Amino acid sequence: MIICQCQYISDTDVHAAIDWMRAADPKTIITPGKIYRALGKAADCGTCMPLFLSTMRQNDNLEVPMQLRGLRKGREPTQENRHERRRESHRLSQPGNPV
Questions:
Q1: In a domain, 97, yes or no
Q2: pLDDT, tens only, 24-68
């Protein structure tokens, strides 16, 4: 089945790219962009993206590696840590202060 008419990508191409990436690096996180690059193509209009994602999800090799699961739990940004844990007083350049 054709997934992307602009770039002529089939479901077989998507599954082959996912399988190839997983075999090459078992710890990689597979994204649509990586699949396009593996196929030597680039997204064009984006209308295929819902079908593209649906096809990706059907592949058994798409799972996030066990070592990478749950890394972001409890790391929601708060008022204090949303700017890389820097405080306002540690900015490199502030208006009114000579450099």
A1: no
A2: 998 888 999 999 999 999 988 889 999 999 999 999 888 877 777
Q: In whole angstroms, give the CA distance from residue 42 to residue 96.
A: 46
Cα distances (angstroms) measured from residue 40 to each of 35, 37, 63, 79: 9, 5, 23, 42
71, part of any domain: no
**Number of residues in the chain:** 99
In a domain, 17, yes or no: yes
Which token pair is 46?
């984006």
Q: What angle do CA 13, 22, 1 make, to 5 degrees?
A: 20
Note down the domain range covering 10: 2-62
- Please report the pLDDT score of residue 75 as a whole number: 54
Amino acid identity, position 16: A
